[in-house]
Design goal:
The structure holds 2 protein chains of 2 kinds.
Chain A: E1 9-13, H1 17-29, E2 33-37, H2 40-50, E3 54-58, H3 66-76, E4 81-86, H4 91-99, E5 104-107, H5 112-171, H6 175-178, H7 181-209, E6 218-221, H8 222-239, E7 243-247, E8 253-256, H9 258-274, E9 281-289, E10 292-299, H10 333-343, E11 347-353, E12 357-365, H11 369-374
Parallel strand pairs in A: 1-2, 1-3, 3-4, 4-5, 7-9
Antiparallel strand pairs in A: 6-8, 9-10, 10-12, 11-12
Helix pairs in contact in A: 1-5, 2-3, 5-7, 7-10, 8-9, 9-10
Chain B: E1 3-7, H1 11-23, E2 27-31, H2 34-44, E3 48-52, H3 60-69, E4 79-83, E5 105-108, H4 113-124
Parallel strand pairs in B: 1-2, 1-3, 3-4, 4-5
Classes of the chains: A alpha/beta, B alpha/beta.
Amino acid sequence: MSSPAERETIVVIDDDYAMRLSCRKILEKSGFNVETFEDGVQGLEGVARLKPGLVVVDLKMPGMSGLEVIGRVHAIDPDIILVVITGYATIDTAVEAMKTGAYDFLPKPFAPDELRLIVNRGFERRRLVLEGRQYEVERALLKRRFITFVSHQLQTPLVAVHQYLDVLKHLGDHPDVAEKREEWIHRCLQRIEAMQVMVKEWLELSAVESEGFARSRDRVDLKVVIADIFAAYQPHAEAAQVSLESDLPDGCSVAGDRHCVAVLFDNLIANAVKYNRPGGKVTVGAEIQSGEVRISVADTGIGIPEKYIPFLFDEFFRVRDEATRNTSGSGLGLAICRKVTAEMGGQITVESKVEEGSVFRVSLPAWRQKESNAA
Amino acid sequence: MKTILIVDDDADFAEALASYLQANGFKVIEARDGTEGLRMARIARPDLIVMDVVMRERTEGFFTVQEMRHTTGLEDVPIFVVSSLYSQHPEFNIAPDSSWLAHDAFFSKPLDMPAFLEQIRQRLGVAEVAG
């Protein structure tokens, strides 16, 4: 802020020559670019031209009053910080000035450091307001893109189902259509199921983003969690000719949110089955090391091309190539994994080789006895 | 028999539309992305192209249309753009004639199949086959 290239500009409006001079000297010494004006009309013209970050204005001037100047400066740019200079006699007016939007006031006479302090605070305030506004803009943009994207993700399966039903309605008796009827009904159900998964994951993601989620620190026995998930995926795995194996040491418990741990490994194991190949396997292993449980979920599947790895945990990212052509997914699973892992104080990484498979490594805080006492 | 190329990354949508058009006397070929669509259009020279917008890239369909317009032999082939996204976003509202883009008409998904068929027939000057 104080570097010459981006010096902040201050406009001083005061009818008193000595005051203008001293303000200029004090503030220029602090590295500001200072322009002074002797009345409101000239001052406002200067503000419009110079676009300062801050305006110092005397409340009591002949002609246009300081109060009027405040209103007009904010009409030019509401983010300009206004500092009011006032004599003791006009404290009430100074309070009124604050009400009309001045940032702070400085009673005369004042020491150079008092002016510097107020001005610096004023710029700090301005910086926060501007940053906040920028953040708001970015958030709104992101949110709009998110909604656009999600609505498209939801529309696509609805459109497919709609169109199948539409054709069956109009041409159900046509021999070519009639013979596809069973297959189409099956496809409709599949699309609806995939959509239900997507909505579930979407809700999970928004729950993860809400504050306080995954805050509880339960003792979560990984053997139980993995066994439950294996049981749930056994039929899928068998159909895909993929074997599920686990090798977990005894007492392998993490301190985390029970639901989050389940969601995390559910996603990883589901992917390991989905992106596998007939005759392949999924192996879950773990080791306890310096207060951490390090869990690996390995598959012998298609692997992930290196160029996609940096984006793998991004929301809605999906590897789209020949190898994943026939798999469906919301692109939210790994984003959820990353969020819940971070929320529980852990880390998630991936190593992968195309055609050989991927290993997802998760480290989570190990459960310690003292935590049970605290709980 | 007139040939229609459907460029859409959703196999189910393409299958439903293709079956409907085939049952109504058209020959249909399909492509799953813009690149494949362009290649097939060059080879097969379809009489009309149905183009999705959001495929691998958010505006892949629009770019593919532009490329087709710069490809010898495809400058004038009618292109009907279809999308579920744009019609419902006021900021993306696309007028049916869309003279600012190189395609011929815009339709929102889901399609009203009989109405869509009628538009194709009109554009290609094909009369409905009786029976």
